């Protein structure tokens, strides 16, 4: 394979699309292993085709209020070399800023019943801190680790 030139030219490739995101993948795995309702996902997805796809992958897993009108569903694209090594990653994660404290509080009943809470690091720092404080008050299992400016 020739070395790709970053000069704006088009290069032949193989493409693929799949649902992803660490927290979403974990929620779907639990959903499939334990059955519908065993895992719920509080996130932000757009009201676009990608959001429709994510909502259909595990029907009912997304909590109410996760669809953002006019929003673009967060996405990630990776450019891999022929041996599978990632050469470049591009992410459009801006919609995660819509994961608000109000959205979390709207689903307090789900959070209080959850035996385990998994938190994606793409949420706004204030939301992350709020969820951690709630989990501590509700005596949820786990530990916190300092990652940059956010404890999670």
From TrEMBL:
Residue ranges of the Carbohydrate kinase PfkB domain?
19-140
**What keywords appear on the UniProt entry?**
Metal-binding
Which InterPro entries is this protein grouped with? PfkB_dom, Ribokinase-like
Q: Name one Pfam family in it.
A: PfkB
Instruction: Tell me yes or no: is Metal-binding among this UniProt entry's keywords.
Output: yes
Question: Which superkingdom heads the taxonomic lineage of this protein's source?
Answer: Eukaryota
Name the source organism.
Answer: Plutella xylostella
Q: What is this protein called?
A: Carbohydrate kinase PfkB domain-containing protein
Q: Which Gene3D superfamilies match?
A: 3.40.1190.20
